[in-house]
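User: Can you predict the 3D structure for this chain?
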Amino acid sequence: MKQAAPSPSPSPDTGAKVTFTSPNGLGVFTFLTEDNTSVAEVNGQRFTNLQDAYNAVEEDGVITLLKDCDQDITNVTKSFKMDCNSKTFSGTVTPNSYYNLTITTEDGTSYTVYTLTRKPSIPGPGGSTGPGGSDPTPTPGPSTSPDPSASPDPSASPEPSTSPDPSASPDVKFDDVKAKDWFYDAVQYVVKNGLMAGVGGNSFKPNDLLTRAMMAQILYNKAGKPAVTGKPSFTDVPNWAADAVKWAADNKVTEGIGGGKFGSDRNITREELAVMLWRDAGKPAPAGTAINFPDAGKISSWAQTAMKWAVQNKILNGNDKGMLEPQGKASRAVVAQMLMNYLKK
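Assistant: Here is the predicted structure, written as structure tokens:
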């Protein structure tokens, strides 16, 4: 009787393993496909573009070269290592304008170490250093309730100062961010200031939603990534966000959602974002009491003061339908716009 030929599993990406299973009980055979296009690898994932590999690597992580490479890495905002792996790297590594870059070799390894340090202090919100700062001052801590009934004395609340806009730097190009887009300037601002970055593939993904852990990381970046001691007390914080969430909780920039959880993967709402920025600014008292939006009544009680402050200072504006949408989810574009409004006010 004619026997069926072995059937391959679905074709994987180049450089991956292909598994064939014999129908005759002869076992499973695994082959490694040849990869002639990938230039680098990060944690087992291969990339044809070195910039994408950098975007994917974690702080102090390793990029392994797979072939000789002359591609450049730009707007670097995190330290990393490159394992040349007997290959030649002839490209350049350019730091974000708020960092100094030191290049060394690691003894006993083939690693080249790219270490970033913040440039001298630049004033930022709350009297702490903003993007590029090196000696952040912890923001004043609020009470344990999300929205304390007593607002702080305005005279005691530090006023956000203007953070410089590195307009002299060339614009960062993303395939999904066009000059005509309402968020174009905001995306340029947050990327140039090292607050946010692309997501790989030359994309910014402006319409993607942002999680609470991601927002904690952004504000931690703004503060200059100060050293923290220990781990966060929450049980749902990923390793990449541990320092950021610990810093945010210690400085009362944010709190958990109850049950020992931070809600790391929960998409942040517009009112939650306003509260985090308000606390980061030192909880300044709003100038008035009214919020003139049709859906102002939907604002949660614990977010009332922060939302008044955000609206009055034009940090948060209505959507295209004239609604404040306090419990709507904040996209990456909205977060970028609110950050720019906040830091440039």
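Helices lie at 50-56, 184-192, 212-222, 242-250, 270-280, 304-312, 332-344. The chain has a mean pLDDT of 78.
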